[in-house]
Every structure is written in C-alpha cells, then in structure tokens.
C-alpha cells in the first residue's frame, strides 16, 4: 500500500509556484493625461464642474452666443457655463 501511494505521488507532476503577475497598464484617458492645470467652473445647470480645456464661445441655434468649458472631468466634452 505504501509503495502504491509513493508511486502515485511520484508520478504526479511537480506543482511549481506561478511567477507573480505584472499589474495591468493603466489606460490612458483624458483624465490621466490632464492631471494638472484644470479649473472649477459654474455650469448653467447650477453644478460646479472641473475642466481642463479652454473656455470657448459657441453660437446657439437661435443666434445667441454661449460660453462653454471644454474637456471636463465628468467626461463631458462641452459644458455650458452660467454667465
């Protein structure tokens, strides 16, 4: 019986510890690229937004001009600002 157990143990492949896995690289998003240099703005919705891009003046459908902040932290490309 001991011989059979010993034969079974010796016939199994040796279990070697796996090498540690490397951490996954961080995905490059506009948030990680613009980690500095942003500014807080007051949005037309009444909320504060943190944006990295320039403030631009865009024409509205009715012909008026509207100030917008660009590249904001919440993922919005353009956020209308309160004047």
Trace the largest sheet across and list its strands.
3-4-5
Order of helix and strand elements from N to C terminus: HHEEEEE
Structural class: alpha+beta
Mean pLDDT: 80
The tally of strands reads 5
Largest sheet: 3 strands, antiparallel
Helical content stands at 10-25%
Task: State the distance separating the first and last CA atoms.
Answer: 89 Å
How many H/I helices? 2
How large is the radius of gyration?
29 Å
Shape: rod-shaped
Which residues sit in consecutive blocks of at least 5 with pLDDT less than 50?
none
Strand content: 25-35%
Describe the structure.
There is one protein chain. The protein is an alpha+beta fold and 83 residues long. The chain has a domain at 37-83. 17% of the residues lie in helices and 27% in strands. The chain contains 2 helices and 5 strands. The chain has helices at 2-11, 30-33, and strands at residues 39-42, 48-51, 55-59, 65-70, 78-80. It has a 3-stranded antiparallel beta sheet, with no helix packed on it. A two-stranded antiparallel sheet has the order 1-2. A hairpin with a 5-residue loop joins strand 3 (55-59) and strand 4. It is rod-shaped, with a radius of gyration of 29 Å.
